[in-house]
Amino acid sequence: MKYNLIRWLLTMLPLVAGMNLLAQDTVIQTLPPITVTATTKKLPEKVWKNFRDYFENATDPKWYEMNKSYLAEFMMDNKDNHALFNKKGKLIYHISYGYENSLPEDLRNQVKASYGDYNITRAIKVNEANRTIWVVNVEDAKNLIMVRLENGEMEEVKRYEKAG
């Protein structure tokens, strides 16, 4: 499940960032269906309690039932956030969508050392299973590059050529 979540995130992040890219060799990959339904029924008390404990400064949470789990979309620290809880209230993952100023200074310096001529346009923090992974989009006039940072290691995940 961890691998599938990370693979899904890395596939979907350019779309989330709203980039207009030209794919020269388009490969269409069909993802398995996920059922997301808006829910007005009462959340399990443990889910609500743990949400409040983890995200005490969260505002405007919106809840969705997703394959027997509960997805919360909310604002916190002026950033969009998503958190998924199982029906027993255990936090499965938390994603925070930010920008360059969201990156810790050491990680920002690490990215700038390798991509100094690029602007950091998106910084997304993923917490899952005691792991913290940053997915960072850097771009210049011609390219968008997706970089993954975890445990001090940096990996270029995808490189896109912009339509020009």
Structure described in brief:
It is built from three helices and nine strands. The chain has helices at residues 2-16, 45-54, 105-114, and strands at residues 36-38, 59-66, 69-76, 79-86, 91-98, 119-128, 131-139, 143-150, 153-161. The longest helix has 15 residues, at 2-16.
Give me the secondary-structure topology:
Blueprint: H1 2-16, E1 36-38, H2 45-54, E2 59-66, E3 69-76, E4 79-86, E5 91-98, H3 105-114, E6 119-128, E7 131-139, E8 143-150, E9 153-161
Antiparallel strand pairs: 1-2, 2-3, 3-4, 4-5, 5-6, 6-7, 7-8, 8-9
Notes on the structure:
Strand 8 and strand 9 form a beta hairpin. The N and C termini lie far apart (37 Å). This protein has a nine-stranded antiparallel beta sheet, sandwiched between helices. It is α+β, with helices and mostly antiparallel strands and 164 residues long. The protein contains three helices and nine strands.
